[in-house]
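Cross-posting from the chemistry board since nobody answered there.

I work mostly on the small-molecule side, so proteins are not my area. We synthesized zinc ion and want a rough idea of how it might sit in this target. Sequence and SMILES are below. Is it possible to get a predicted 3D structure of the two together?
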Amino acid sequence: MATIETVTGAIDEGDLGRTLGHEHFRTRSEMVVAQWPHLYDEDAQRERALEDARAVMEHGVKSVCVPDAMLLGRDAAFLKEISEETGLQLVVATGIYTYEELPQYFVNRDVDHMADCFAHDIEEGIQVTDIKAGFLKCAADAQGVGENVEKVHRACARASKQTGAPIMAHSHPPTQTGLRQLEIFDEEGVDPAKIQIAHTGDTEDLEYVGKLLDGGVFIGMDRYGLGNVFPPDTEGRNKVVLELLDRGHADRMTLSQDFCSTIDWFPEDHPMRELVAEWSMTLVFEKVIPALLESGATEGQVATMLDENPRRWLTA
Ligand SMILES: [Zn+2]
């Protein structure tokens, strides 16, 4: 039996249980945190993270994949605290979350050095702890796959080849970045079964989604509740999921919300906060799954997406 690294140590894959594939317990601009820590209420942020961890456990969730990375404020010790206090198992990532720019440190060093940094987190531990990363994270968005973004993808691919860890790639379906992302992984020789193209639920273009599935990857239907910012809305997202279930793809989708217990990207009174009023870490259980079941999805298909696919991807 394969093992999976969580922030509290390795577990047997059979103990992963019901899993949300993509959530964040604290998202912060780490450069701002480092320079002006007085801006942050650590206790309040911790409390919100604990509340969400307990809320998902009430729905039978045993584990959450946390694709935190550089530039998302990843903090392995913080996640360990949340896990230890609640018993929720957290699988954290290593990697870099950028749509375009890299710090000079990485601009002037090669892709293999970056891959070594990622491999260090997987094999030795993150941020001078013994907390090991369970997967790799990279991102491409509306800016396309430029030089720096390509470098991060190749570094993830090489670290994956070296360590066996799977990869989650944030994508931008409106510009079909997933296809180029897959092409890079393929050039680097990564097994597509180890790849999850995140945010594929942000489109109703079944031809595009079909091309990704033909490539043999997992797809993240993982932004429920964000429909006002990234269409389609929950109903539109469910229509796509139901169609893919009909086509026999239950074994390729993960369900999640990409929720952030707290996020510092917008001030509290920013209009964006109202647009995401429905967004939560439990929306999938409160609204999405009931609607899918009512429209003909089976309990078995839901179980495949929540109980099987995250484990299959993490241990591919
Ligand atoms: Zn995310």
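Reply from a structural biologist on the board:
Welcome over. Reading the output above for you: Residues 176 and 208 are 7 Å apart (CA to CA). Residues 22, 24, 67, 258 surround zinc ion (CB under 6 Å). Happy to explain the token format if needed.
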